[in-house]
Amino acid sequence: MAATGESTGRDLRADRIFVLRHAVAQLLFWSSFYYLMPALLPHLLAQSGWSDVAVSGAMSSGVLVWAVLCPFAGGVVDRGGAGRAMRLAGICGAVLLLLAAWAQTLWLLAVALVLLGGPMAMTLYDPCFSLMIRRFGPEARRPITLITLIAGFATLLIFPLVSALAAAGLGWRWIVVIFAVIALLATAILPSDPQGDENLQATACAPPGKEQRARTIAFGMAFALMMFGHAALLFQLPAQLVEARGLSGALMLPMVLGPAQVAGRLMWERVQGRLHSEPAALLLFTAMLLPPLLLFLGGGMGMALLALVIQGGCYGVLTILRPLLGARWLPGAGFARRLGVVAMIGLLMMGVAPTVAAWVTSGFGLVGLLVLVLLADGAGLALLAGFMRRARREEWT
Questions:
Q1: Which InterPro entries match (predicted)?
Q2: Does residue 322 share a domain with residue 294?
Q3: What are phi and psi of 278, to 5 degrees?
Q4: How many independent structural domains does the chain possess?
């Protein structure tokens, strides 16, 4: 019995170290691969003289590459090769950052930023979440929550750090080099493949049937609609509040979204043991109707701040619930690939949201933006509710 207890203790310590290493790696990968360029963009443009549209377009194209490759990254996880692939992707991402830092022409920088979408697909969140679900099964709630909690500090890390490095006199190229080194550090932190993955490989690659594909798309669209509304608010709300209501401080409002997401995840950590994922998702989808409704009521900065705190808090928890509910409703062989499809749908919807929101606000202003977000969130809620009713009726596993 003592030996068994000692073995269990070692297993628990190994599990904690496994999760913690992935969490720290996610923090560093998100900082280096995703948030670096938005934080660095003003300095890069000022020092290089390159086109804002061209650089931003390359960044957007990189996100598109990320989205398209998500299902393929999931397939790698299904075949049990996630650890090796994530390390290779981390190295490739660091090399691409070095290429961007070395680039003397805009086209070479653009190539590096577009290709960076490949490493992002294999390192950011969804492959990591799939690994946690493979290793911990129904107990993956806490590991995924911890990972999102730690990685959620990326926005709080990257923007002040880039500003401090720039203020210290470093040019944008040296800042990119520093984050290439940080990406290599994240790669070194990644743990080895979990034991037992080889036992899962035999059942990993069975193709999904028509019903499973339809389920995956419907589930993905429910979450993607909420991601669409979130991105539309993020990109258009501050400028619209300045224009329509004269709130000059509104341009700083998006800064609260990161801390609000962390706060939401901390609250989820406290209540997750008492609240099942399904009712929690329904509650949060409903709560995400509140921000556009509150903004409809008018008011000043206080009302806008409250709306974005609610938005950020709910969105932070939805990031956790998506893989957990996916594991419940999209189980079986090839799960990680299906989760990759869900991620792809969400990223594509996030990608088109700024353009659609800009078109709507050009004709209908702030009211049009709020109606758009309300319709997207309402459609996501309706789709999720219908999905859940069918799951209960047909007793999905």
A1: MFS, MFS_trans_sf
A2: yes
A3: -65, -55
A4: 2
